[in-house]
Amino acid sequence: MCTPCCVSQLACCCGSAACSCCCNCCPKIKQSTGTRLMYVFYFLLVTVVCAIMMSPTVEQTMKDNIPFYTDLCDKMNAGENCKTLVGYSAVYKMCFGMACFFLFFSILTFRINNSTGWRAAIHNGFWLLKFIVLVGCCAGAFFLPQEETFLEVWRYVGATGGAFFLLIQLMLLVEFAHRWNTNWSSGVGYNRLWYAALALVTLVLFSVAVGAVVFMGIYYTHPEACLLNKVFLGINGGLCFVVTLLAISPCIQKLQPKSGLLQPGVISVYVMYLTFSAFSSKPKEIINIDGVNKTLCAFPFESGSENDKKIVTALGAFILLACIVYSCLTSTTKRSSAALRVYRNSEPEAERARCCFCFGDDTEDYDEEKTTSGQTVVYDEEEGTIYSYSYFHFVFFLGSLYVMMTVTNWFHYDDHKIEKLLDGSWSVFWLKMVSCWVCLFIYMMTLIAPMMCPKRFEA
Predict the structure, then answer these.
(1) Count of C-beta atoms within a 10 Å radius of residue 311
(2) Is 291 exposed, middle or buried (0-12, 13-18, 19+ CB in 10 A)?
(3) Has this prediction a pTM greater than 0.90?
(4) Bridge partners of 29?
(5) Among candidate residues 186, 177, 185, the one with its CA nearest the CA of residue 205
(6) 39, 131 in Cβ contact below 8 A?
(7) How many Å is the Cα radius of gyration of the chain?
């Protein structure tokens, strides 16, 4: 078993064969899914390296545990204690290399409609060679001339691309809410348990949203300070209430019978999360009360141990990566390509209610399978491509810029550390607050667009 597995892995790394695990007990995997997961692995690998570059803790640990660390840095021409390999400038260069890698493949795979050509073979295979190219792109970025000019220009390119990626992320969230409701509603006709599941999840979502409002009202507002917090909490809470009433209004129900409370529940929870994240990102307010300086409107556990801060930072980083990966994986499917399209009737009759529908494929199961000594691979693109290769890489290109700006705290990059990912800055505060309103606007447009252009949205 070992020899055939090694041969298949060699064909995957240096040829166009699909990658798979050597273990027979692994469930079968589609070629299109395996390809996307490999690109996600590359993306996460560079993201982790960027996070390490922004961590003084890791830098100090390496300095203490690597023998001849200073001499090694001198031989690599990396500056004193490898200063050129850490900090925001190093992250900019790493993400520049990754962005160039995905942009190149976006151009290379433009308008590919089948998986039989040489361009499709490069996209779906040759993983070792592509890894070498990715490493070369990232390493070559450290030798760019006129570093100051590059960093200044690349910062604004990153901010623009990161904003577009954030917009795609918000559109996908709205699409996710509609798809969740549609999928589970399709099961109500033959099993009433799906109706109970819809009701239970909706109740939980609105309980979380209301609980978040109460929590922020207690800990993030104060009678003598935090005016912005009080204003924006009221605005965002009110807007969530408005879109909830709009979703179940008779005029919307007439055109969209499937519209219910689940979608506004999902949107409300996400808006409250963004609001909480924005309040946490805002610089702390310190006022004098009875001759004592007190920090107000801050995370209640932030004054506690360092472990509390690490837990909050780790949770924020996990949610960030989960959103990025979900956006990159699902933004190119046929179903998600029309994220703002809301049909008058329900989804096609083939829609089947499932608990795990997020990463469901757009196509039916394929009978033709090719097996090796390890995991079974289903070649699902023999008749045509399942997703847009070029758009897939372009989304990862934008995701690279978004990671770059997020890890370096957008425009507050000086002396930033990855351990302070959730520490305050006004640019992050306004970015997240505007994201709340854009998310609500996109969802509201999916509700009222069929009323404004009924012929366009007829099934």
Answers:
(1) 12
(2) exposed
(3) no
(4) 377
(5) 177
(6) no
(7) 25
Mean pLDDT along residues 230-250: 92
Q: Residue 101: is it exposed, middle or buried by C-beta count within 10 angstroms (0-12/13-18/19+)?
A: buried
The pLDDT of residue 209 is above 50: yes
Q: Label each residue of the chain as H, E or C.
A: CHHHHHHHHHHHHHCCCCCCCCCCCCCCEEHHHHHHHHHHHHHHHHHHHHHHHCCHHHHHHHHHHCCCHHHHHHHCCCCHHHHHHCCHHHHHHHHHHHHHHHHHHHHHCCCCCCCCCHHHHHHHCCHHHHHHHHHHHHHHHHHCCCHHHHHHHHHHHHHHHHHHHHHHHHHHHHHHHHHHHHHHHCCCCCCCHHHHHHHHHHHHHHHHHHHHHHHHHHHCCECCECHHHHHHHHHHHHHHHHHHHHHCCHHHHHHCCCCCCHHHHHHHHHHHHHHHHHHHHCCCEEEEECCEEEEECCCCCCCCCHHHHHHHHHHHHHHHHHHHHHHHHHCCCCCHHHCCCCCCCCCCCCCCCCCCCCCCCCCCCCCCCECCCCCCEECCCCCCCCCCHHHHHHHHHHHHHHHHHHHCCCCCCCCCCHHHCCCCCHHHHHHHHHHHHHHHHHHHHHHHHHHHCCCCCCC
The answer to whether the CB of 285 falls within 8 A of the CB of 297 is yes
At residue 20 the predicted structure's pLDDT band, cuts being 50, 70 and 90, is low
Tokens 């795990």, located at residue: 356
In this predicted model, what pLDDT tens digit does every residue of 30-85 receive, in sequence order?
777 788 888 988 998 998 888 887 776 666 666 666 665 566 666 555 555 566 56
Give the tens place of pLDDT for each residue, 59-70: 666 666 666 556
Q: Which residue has the tokens 């990754």?
A: 98
Is the pLDDT at 437 greater than 70, yes or no?
A: yes
Pairing verdict, β 292-296 and 285-289: antiparallel
Which residue do the tokens 């390493």 mark?
Answer: 139
- Indicate if the pLDDT at residue 439 is higher than 60: yes
